[in-house]
Specification:
By secondary structure, the chain is an all-alpha fold. It is built from 9 helices and no strands. It has 2 domains: about 70 residues, no CATH class; about 80 residues, no CATH class. Helix 4 packs parallel to helix 6 and helix 6 runs antiparallel to helix 7. The radius of gyration is 17 Å and the shape is globular.
């Protein structure tokens, strides 16, 4: 019997774990042509929102697929426009609730891989790290507790990667808004 993406999504919505075999099957279904279109990207992100128990391979697949879609999905490759940044933020934003570590890593990878991206995307990623540090909830690390008011090595690494990502304006400089955020945390 073949793999059914709709059966898979229903199972995940019902609480089934995402196994490495599931990831391989999804990869074969949505990525046979070497490209992820918007419909496929939205389906992958929807599965991720519903997932309660996903193997590490799922996170790796999600990051690889969505980075490819956002960075290389339209011409010119490597350039992300405001509309794509707004779409991604809309897909990931949880209405004020912290995002997961996979989602944060996804945005950081996009900023690192893209040649240029709107400042809104970089600002949104920095806001997620800031919230995590100030409130003690969020996605700055996969393992270990997040302590409110404490900037640990995981946050330092994320901040450095975001601030100096090649896609941001002034990738070698920290602008005033970024400096103010660093002072707040």
């Amino acid at each position: 019997m073949g793999f059914s993406f709709s059966d898979f999504t229903s199972a995940v919505r019902s609480g089934a774990p995402i196994t490495p075999d599931d990831v391989l099957a999804v990869r074969r279904v949505v990525w046979p042509d070497g490209a992820i279109d918007r419909v496929e990207a939205e389906a992958i992100l929807a599965v991720n929102r519903d997932a309660r128990d996903a193997s590490p391979e799922w996170g790796d697949f999600l990051i690889e697929a969505i980075v490819d879609h956002v960075v290389n999905g339209s011409e010119p490759h490597g350039y992300i426009d405001e509309a794509d940044a707004a779409w991604l933020i809309g897909e990931l934003d949880r209405g004020g609730a912290p995002i997961g570590s996979v989602e944060l890593e996804l945005v950081v990878k996009i900023l690192e891989k893209a040649l240029n991206a709107p400042e809104t995307l970089k600002h949104w990623a920095l806001s997620e790290v800031e919230r995590c540090v100030l409130v003690g909830e969020g996605a700055t690390r996969r393992d270990g507790p997040v302590r409110p008011g404490i900037v640990d090595a995981a946050e330092v690494t994320l901040l450095r990667r975001i601030l100096f990502a090649s896609a941001g304006e002034g990738a070698l400089l920290v602008n005033n808004d970024e400096a103010e955020m660093l002072w707040r945390i």
